[in-house]
Amino acid sequence: MVRELSQEAVIIGAGVIGLAIARELHRRGLTRITILDSGKAGREASFAAAGMLAVQAETDETGEFFDLCRAARDVYPDFAADIQAETGIDIELDRAGTIYLAFNDSDIRELSHRYEWQRRAGLQVERLSARETCKLEPFVSPDVRESLLFPDDWQVENRRLLAALERSAARNGLVVEENRRVDRLIVKNGRAIGVETPVGKIYSQRVVLAAGAWTSLIGVEGIEIPTVRPVRGQILAFQTAKRLFSHVVYSPRGYIVPRADGRILAGATVEEVGYANEMTPAGIDFVATNAFEISPALSGLPIAERCSGLRPRTTDGLPLIGTFPQVENLFIATAHYRNGILLAPLTAQLTAEMIVGNGVPELLKGFGPNRF
Ligand code: GLY
Hints:
Elements: E1 6-7, E2 9-12, H1 16-27, E3 33-36, H2 45-48, E4 52-53, H3 55-58, H4 64-87, E5 98-102, H5 105-120, E6 126-129, H6 130-136, E7 146-150, E8 154-155, H7 158-171, E9 175-177, E10 184-188, E11 191-197, E12 200-204, E13 207-209, E14 229-239, E15 248-251, E16 254-258, E17 263-267, H8 281-294, E18 303-313, E19 320-324, E20 327-334, H9 340-355
Parallel strand pairs: 1-12, 2-3, 2-13, 3-9, 5-15, 13-20
Antiparallel strand pairs: 4-8, 5-7, 6-7, 10-11, 11-12, 14-17, 14-18, 15-16, 16-17, 19-20
Helix pairs in contact: 1-7, 1-9, 4-7, 4-9
Bound molecules: glycine.
């Protein structure tokens, strides 16, 4: 079967980034938008994520990437309110904050470094003694030596976020085609004019690559797309009847994320194993060991879920968002690596601005493909 369909935008990838871009394009007046996914919408990295908005816990210095992450965090309260008003889905933006624990001398050195650069940058960060930490979170290990509190590192329920974005797309009449692999982009006279799938071509005025870890598998003639590699993350979810923690809790080796429904997510491995997206006994053991170090109380709890996903990473670990001087009407927004949920709403807003012709926003200048 050959299908030819003329769209205003085709987005490759129906993860949180692709779906959020579709929503922003619709808000800017585009109506004929198709989002293609080689599997099930949102079922890859976006689904396996833990939803931390971990600007201060997961960046190591100030700079362009930190600025992007901080700006992304700042848009979340309005984004969460808007999408709830639009779809009726509460994405559970939880602003209780994050604590980061030290258990040994090397951890204490890491915390001191983090505390110093963040104070110098004017960020909210507090240093807590072991006693203060255990008072704040009674189920944290009594072996904790000290901790940092980041009141502005929040969390969202990433699966509710996905559900909200899918509902938004459906209500706005956008087409999400699942199990629709894109083999290659169609480029003619220096312009992207569509995509080729195993069941036909889809022509479009604009093409957006948001395929996450699968970006490098899509054929594009005439231009070099920087390599995006999959990095597997395995997580576990423990089940409690009642919420045991109020904050997200990190150590230098792992994290736990308490959800409103009593689940406690624990993560995560960071593994370069190609496209093998599966749980392994060693991965489960690694995640559980680090979670039990944070809170030995978890060790007796039932495991409600085991899950893994492939984070998309460029060789420098930074997002890939921008345009290609050699090909008009082609845009890329991918490789958000460990920060896809945090960055999705802002990436979508900035990418949509670029797509509708307002140039590359200042915040994105360091993240274009031309940096390689
Ligand atoms: N941002 C958490 C992770 O990638 O495991």
